[in-house]
Amino acid sequence: QGRRVSLIDVELNQGDRTALRAAITMGTPEHHVPPLLAVNPVGPLMTPEPPPGLEPIGPGHSMADIVHLAHGCDIRPSLTTFSPR
């Protein structure tokens, strides 16, 4: 028995480089099997606002030249876990 599926393929480009690529396959779910994931366990860990004490990377920050997304995003890395490997 055939099914109809759709493929969504999106790229976020920065200049001539691809910064992010996401490919999603969508289709009608099979009703006779339970879902693989019913809730998102990561949701509570990703609050809309960053925790207090995180400095945003923006113009004037020492990493602003490295993190070019700082011009369009509010990026706040945790410096306690952000270290060279």
Give a short synopsis of this structure.
This protein is mainly beta. The chain has no helices and 2 strands.
Residue ranges: pLDDT <50 for 5 or more in a row? Answer: none
Alpha carbon gyration radius = 19 Å
Number of strand elements: 2
Q: What is the N-to-C succession of helices and strands? A: EE
Fold topology:
Layout (H helix, E strand, L loop, with lengths): L4 E10 L2 E11 L58
Antiparallel strand pairs: 1-2
Descriptive report:
With 85 residues, the chain is an all-beta fold. The protein has a domain at 53-80. The protein has strands at residues 5-14, 17-27. The chain has a two-stranded antiparallel sheet. Strand 1 (5-14) and strand 2 form a beta hairpin.
Which labels suit this protein?
two-stranded antiparallel sheet, 85 residues, mainly beta, 0% helix, single chain
